[in-house]
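User: Predict the structure for this protein chain, please.
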Amino acid sequence: MPLSRYIAFLLVGALVGVWLLTAAPAAADAEQSQTSEDKDKAEPVKAAAIDPSDFNVGGAGDLLIAPTRVVLEGRTRAAEITLHNKGAKEATYRVSFAHVTMDDNGRYTELKDQAAQNKALRFADELLRYSPHQVTLKPGESQVVKVMVRPSEGLAEGEYCSHLLFRAVPDASAGEDVEATKVQDGKITIHLVPIYGVSIPVIVRHGTLSAQARVSNVRLSGRNLLLTLTRSGTASVYGDVIATEAGSDTVVGQLRGVAVLATNDRRNVSMPLTAQAHGTLTVEYRQRVEDGGKVLDKTSIAL
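Assistant: Here is the predicted structure, written as structure tokens:
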């Protein structure tokens, strides 16, 4: 193989697909392939109307997803995930599960090979079924992917989580064959095609679970409010961090959809202040409105 082609092959082989991880509220519906027994056990749920604000705005490429977080628990055995192509070209997405962990700063890492087989991390993919496995969307078109839980017999009580990954299938016409790579002016010219994707957590809760959260170590750093969310119990916690001026409803900072997974006991948060703050701030960690809006914990800081 000519040297220029060999180098080009190495460059293309090193291209890593870009994929983003996000989190937000859940929805549910029935899977068409349910058995009669499953239908009897599952609580019927009406498909919720999708509001544009529910989508993962700024998702990978031209793909929007709603909801961006799914929780299956109790009699809720299935959910519908709506994919929408907001782009000007037809796009194909391959659907698969990813094994993901989160560090104390909220950064996600995908695990591979033996690391992904760690039973202590309680991944949910072996409990879940979904369809279709690949979706092609025309510009402006939407389609539903259905996911359903089938708990195994003797499943240990606890929370299980895997991320459903929607990865773009590159358009072959958008790239150049490595064999067609040429050297011009002493430089190799190739067309690299990034592979975009977005993933959402799918959580299965089995048994009677509970969780508590605490807001601590709140401090000001420039225009950012730094704090730590501490989780305890047998389930993850999820909600919004909101800072208001004490004694008023004036919001000076807010982060939506902040999760601490069941495999983590803490998460460090940096929240930019969006307005000038004075006096004392009240900082709350609150469930999303659709989850009940309960204040999980709150504290205050004098500026």
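The helical segments are 3-13, 36-41.
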